[in-house]
Write a structure and sequence with these properties.
By secondary structure, the chain is of the alpha+beta class. It is 43% helix and 26% strand.
Length: 130
């Protein structure tokens, strides 16, 4: 099932992964942590046939730790999901009009609307907790 975002159709990473396993029972999805500081970079690989591990598709993703509510606790997991979605997109799984998945586009829109908490807001919140 696709998701409509700003009039465009996207497929979720979950659906892409399910389709991958149906189409490629001898396939494999692997991920590699490239960087984990205040940002996370993940590279994922989609191997359609493990008997030919020279043929694979890659996807990269990048997340800033704490940039969204999800990334406060799960930046690594969020990043890996995006990288897997992109690798599967390059394998032509879940492509409706874009390599990007519904998850990735939704996250990008959310980050555009994200406004960090100001120091004054933090101070007021701390006062409220006393």
């Amino acid at each position: 099932m696709s998701v409509q975002i700003h009039g465009n159709e996207y497929i979720t990473v979950n659906e892409r992964v399910q389709e991958f396993h149906k189409l490629y029972p001898n396939g494999s999805i692997k991920s590699e942590l490239v960087e984990m500081t205040d940002r996370v970079i993940v590279k994922s690989y989609a191997y359609p046939d493990m008997s030919d591990n020279m043929r694979y598709f890659t996807g990269f993703a990048y997340e800033m730790v704490g940039s969204t509510q999800i990334n406060k606790t799960s930046a690594l997991e969020n990043c890996e999901t995006s990288a897997i979605g992109r690798a599967l997109g390059f394998l032509n799984i879940g492509i409706v009009g874009s390599i990007a998945s519904a998850d990735e586009v939704g996250n990008a829109i959310h980050q555009q609307n994200y406004k960090p908490v100001t120091e004054l807001q933090k101070e007021l919140y701390q006062e409220y907790l006393k």
